[in-house]
Amino acid sequence: MARVDRLRTALATRYAPTLLLSLLTGTVVFLIASELFPYHSLNHDEGVYLQQAALLLDGQFQHYPPAGLADEFRPWFFVVDEGAMYPKYAPVPAGMFALGLAVGLPRLALAAIAAGNVGLVVTLGTEAFDRRVGVLAGILLVLSPMFLLASSLFLPYAPTTFLNLLFALGYVRAVRADEATASRRWAALAGVAIALSFFGRPYTAVLFALPFIGHACWTLWTGYRHDAARLRPQLTRNLVIAMLGISGVVAALGYNWLLTGDPLLFPFEAFAPLDGLGFGQRRIVDHALVWTPALSVRATTTLLVLFAQSWTAAGWAGTVVFVVGLLAWAGHLRARESTPSIDRPHLSDDALRLLLLGIFVSVIVGNLYFWGTYNVQGGLEDPNDGLLAIHGPIYHFDMLVPLSVFGAFGVVGVGERLRETVAATYSPRTARVVLAAVLVLTVPAIGVAEQAALSGPVEDSADYTAKYESAYEPLESTDFENALVMVPTPYGHWSNHPFQSLRNDPGFDGDVVYAQHQDAPSTFEVIDAYPDRELYRWTYHGEWTPAPDENVIGKLVPLGVREGERLEGTTRVGVPSGAQSAIIRIENGSDVRELYLDQAVGEQVSVNWSVGPDGLRVTDDDVRPLGESGALAVNGSQELAVAVILNYDGGSTLTYRQEFDTRVRDGRVQVVWPAETSVCSLTIDCGTRGTYLPDHPDQHLDGVWVNGTLTASSRSS
């Protein structure tokens, strides 16, 4: 009973601030993730990790699409290997996210990781300085915009930092433990944590662990040279950490062998052989760069300046208190007239502080060797471009640990100096008033700085969310059951890039299956693979770009496959006032026929056409060819188009365009209908920018409307 009472007392006093701060952090991160990023962020890696998490819950490392259709279902950043697909990333972060996915609240995992990071930073700050500094370090971490935003995303940086912090705490406690069994237990925690971290993100783990590895080597060396009695417990402790840590290397190599067939070939290297460490030619997908030391220094300098200005606690304020903390510690060392001792049997506070600063240095120097420092900025011309503008310099996420701890020490030092100065100058009552006034003035200033640091990325993220909300609206308002939805591919033949929320279940057998709409052969192959599903086309009006404020409007169209010996089509369009003439245009991808409408243009134009094994042709009599005449051949599966071009004075045009996937086989023709319909000004084909929205007439000129029908001819059975 006494032991329980002591535990309750400790929880209520010693650990209460940490627990409350961690709980508050988890709640805030959960709300940000749910409200600001309901459709995820500009970083489309989130979809990769969530897809991988779903696979892990299903007991798989690989995705298996329908035979022969890997290209139609390939998710972003997945490698295709003999029909199977696997992600370029290691499964550790995804495994952590899977814990939340398993209970139906994936963002709960984000909240738990963020809460854990804050609790661990508080604990390490306490170990290095005292409890005041530890709690303040946790507060500064929470106030860091990069921590709040990156922790709210399904990305590996916060999870990896959590594992790294567990390693650091385990190492510190193992070194400082007085009892051998306790030391080995903490060493085991450190070893397991760094093993998982290495398995998840090897380079990040190595950079974080380097100062601790250096300390371990130094203590072994000094023990060997000067105190043999200390060597055995040091050797035992470090062997436990090392052997368990090496298990992470073994796991990574085994995972590589399982997926790539080569223990030394990592999946990310199989995806993009030149997307890795080192200088010289670097490449990933269509992005290439010659990464030089000079460019690395320039990119890193720019990044660090932006980090200092915007991504620490309350922006510049966090950087200032970090510098103050460093100077205060330097003054402390000078007053002692000594340097930190790192070879004592129990790790000194100053030695631990030096190790934390070592993380700061190793992360900066190590990332000089990685071209991601440049990529995260989207180039160096505009600091408001790239992923950095949305959630910060994420490859340097671990730097938040020393920044928060030393920043907290700076805050405490300033507070103590101010208290001493005021107490020496004024009476106790006046001193209390002065200190309260300073606090009242400081807190709003910090709040303004925090708001300024967060406002830009939060507003951009909110705009991006609104963009997805508008695009997904018809999908979210439809209750799918046994559906197949064809989706556009604005960034190339990738699923979940940029549409991360439209992920397929493992097995590709959920209530809705999403397939890429690429070309006619691909479309019919997908339809053949899912013959019994209800078919839809999801598209949007507008052009999809990374710009958050360039909005689009979603459109969902139920589809069917019309079939017959010949299909007869009619396209009717409205004519906005002022049109002088009309041209009918038909296309089969490689060839074109144009015909002049030989009659006055009224309030509407109606065009009759047909498609069959002998091709696509216009069947009206009141047209005359402009150039070559006759039908357009249809060979196998092709995308065909029928367009009506209205001509205005001055050379202006308005084009109605209907595109439809067509297949001819066994003397019969099949057409996916309704067609994709667009209305374009000054160009014949404007893609999704002109997608026709009958329910949004405000998106088109007055008088614009289009109606198309397609039926089997009387000769068709």
Question: Which tags fit this structure?
Answer:
single chain; about 725 residues; alpha+beta; 2 domains; eleven-stranded mixed sheet; four-stranded antiparallel sheet; about 50% helix
Textual characterization of the structure:
It is a single chain. It is elongated, with a radius of gyration of 32 Å. The chain folds into two domains: 17-436, no CATH class; 565-712. Helix 10 runs parallel beside helix 12. Helix content is 50%, strand content 18%. With 717 residues, the chain is an alpha+beta fold. The strands form four sheets. Strands 5, 6, 7, 8, 10, 11, 14, 15, 16, 17 and 18 form an eleven-stranded mixed β-sheet that branches. It has a four-stranded antiparallel β-sheet with strand order 13-12-9-19, with no helix packed on it. The chain is built from 21 helices and 19 strands. A hairpin with a 2-residue loop joins strand 1 (78-81) and strand 2.
Total DSSP helices? 21
Q: Describe the global form.
A: elongated
Summed up, the domain count is 2
Radius of gyration: 32 Å
List low-pLDDT spans. Answer: none
What is the secondary structure topology, with strand pairs?
Elements: H1 2-12, H2 16-36, H3 45-57, H4 70-73, E1 78-81, E2 84-87, H5 92-102, H6 106-128, H7 131-143, H8 145-150, H9 157-176, H10 180-200, H11 202-226, H12 228-260, H13 267-271, E3 280-284, E4 287-291, H14 293-311, H15 316-336, H16 349-367, H17 372-375, H18 388-391, H19 400-425, H20 428-476, E5 483-487, E6 512-516, H21 520-529, E7 534-541, E8 553-564, E9 567-574, E10 581-587, E11 592-597, E12 604-612, E13 615-618, E14 623-625, E15 637-647, E16 653-665, E17 668-673, E18 676-681, E19 706-712
Parallel strand pairs: 5-6, 5-7
Antiparallel strand pairs: 1-2, 3-4, 7-8, 8-17, 9-12, 9-19, 10-11, 10-15, 11-14, 12-13, 15-16, 16-17, 16-18
Helix pairs in contact: 2-6, 2-7, 3-5, 5-6, 6-7, 6-9, 6-19, 7-19, 9-10, 9-11, 10-11, 10-12, 11-12, 11-16, 14-15, 15-19, 16-19, 19-20
